[in-house]
Amino acid sequence: MKLTFWGAARQVTGSMYLLELEDGYRILIDCGTDMERNIEEEDENRRFFPFDPATVNLVLLTHAHIDHSGNIPNLFRDGYEGQILCTSATYDLTRLLLLDAAHLNQRKLQRAVGDSNKKKKRMARLEKKGDLYLDKQVEDALDNFVPIAFSQKFQVREGIWVNFIPAGHLLGAAHIVLEIAENGRKKSICFSGDLGRKNYPLHEEPHPVPEVDYLVCETTYGSRLHEDERTPEEALSDVIRRTCINIPGRLIIPAFSVGRTQALLFTLNRLYSEQGFKPIRVFSDSPLAHSTTRVYEKNVKLLNADAQAFRQKHGSLFDFQNLTFIESEKASRAISNHREPCIIISASGMISGGRVEQHVAANISNPYCTILLVGYAAEGTLGWRLMNGQNTLKIKDREMNVMAKIEKIDIFSGHGDQHDLLRFVKAQSPEKLKQVFLIHGEEGSMQVFANLLNENGYRHVEIPEKGQTYEL
């Protein structure tokens, strides 16, 4: 069989891998949005997918995040007619994320009316390339999702078995293990998806993966270790005391709506419910995050034992005194200037659009405001600029002085670090493992991790280029 790397190859986003069996059966693992893609440099007549979706027989989805699921509607639009296998929680979250993306696409198209010719031309190219799917394309795709239970080997057809093993990165996230029998021989391959970390709020720790012949491993933190060794409660309470209690300040936390916001709200709930922490007004400003919290509550049995015990004792994972969920954009604009000490949690986590951009713009020159960065920010985003200490910031064509305090903690990062990744790989025997493929990371991070694996006895480590094919 052959494995071709069509996404997240020597970069972080756009996960997409095509496995072709000797009898022509084709399995696509993940179908994510490439957030590092530059459409201006693309050939206008190039096909959206580098393969014919109509020839794909099955799609397997590791988890819901848009860089793994975001191009599924386009796959159906371009001819795919098969099923999407994933866990039930991944289906629930993917539905929210794809519909949210479709709504944003609709707004982009509406705003393009009356815009400059340059922007109109770019929007036309996006439409032609197929990026801007709408609700109908999402619903067409969702009709073909088939939920599969965790940790139960499922036979796809004769000679093909799949197992979704909890990965701990996000509700429903899985390592996918495929066993394939061809010509009297059985081969196994594991796609890591995104690896979670130990002791993360809400999520189970990653489950062990059985020994396989081939391992496709993410490397987001392949060259880095998590710096903060405190508990989430200790880290967050320290920031809140300094920014909202010792001084009457305002704390803005840019956070992804799916996964990160739920971890923050749960941690705040624990502070208020179990540690006697003084309730401060908290605004959760993301409709997508609110929908996601309902999915988490619905799937509480998939969460870790700590979260389940808390829910049984207190009745809710996320609802606590002085918490307000913001729905309308008018209400969102109003809280940017709330007069009392408060915490605003809003998307997006990198401050690359979304409601949080307005909150940052309204408060970036306020010395009584603190902006707390709690996750990865891609180069060039507002979050990255703040993280790197820029003294001025341009937001929506306005140049502003950065007078707010900027802090960062990595305790809420949902990715395992270098130690976690190494532990994941070392569950495999260096003698049995035929090849390790490193994906989903910056190229430098991949190389550092490849060298570390070599030092630990793993000699067959590959860093594929986009479009590169391997015979397994």
TrEMBL record:
Domain Beta-Casp: 261-386
Database matches in InterPro entries: Beta_Casp, MBL, Metallo-B-lactamas, RibonucZ/Hydroxyglut_hydro, RMMBL
Record keywords, A-Z: Hydrolase
CDD domains per the UniProt record, alphabetical: TTHA0252-CPSF-like_MBL-fold (cd16295)
Annotated signal peptide: none
Gene3D superfamilies reported in the protein's UniProt record: 3.40.50.10890, Ribonuclease Z/Hydroxyacylglutathione hydrolase-like (3.60.15.10)
The keyword Zinc is assigned to this record: no
Domain Metallo-beta-lactamase residues, every copy: 13-224
Keyword Transmembrane helix annotated: no
Highest taxon listed in the record's lineage: Bacteria
Single GO MF descriptor: hydrolase activity
Protein name: Metallo-beta-lactamase family protein
UniProt organism field: Siphonobacter aquaeclarae
Lineage, top ranks: Bacteria, Pseudomonadati, Bacteroidota, Cytophagia, Cytophagales
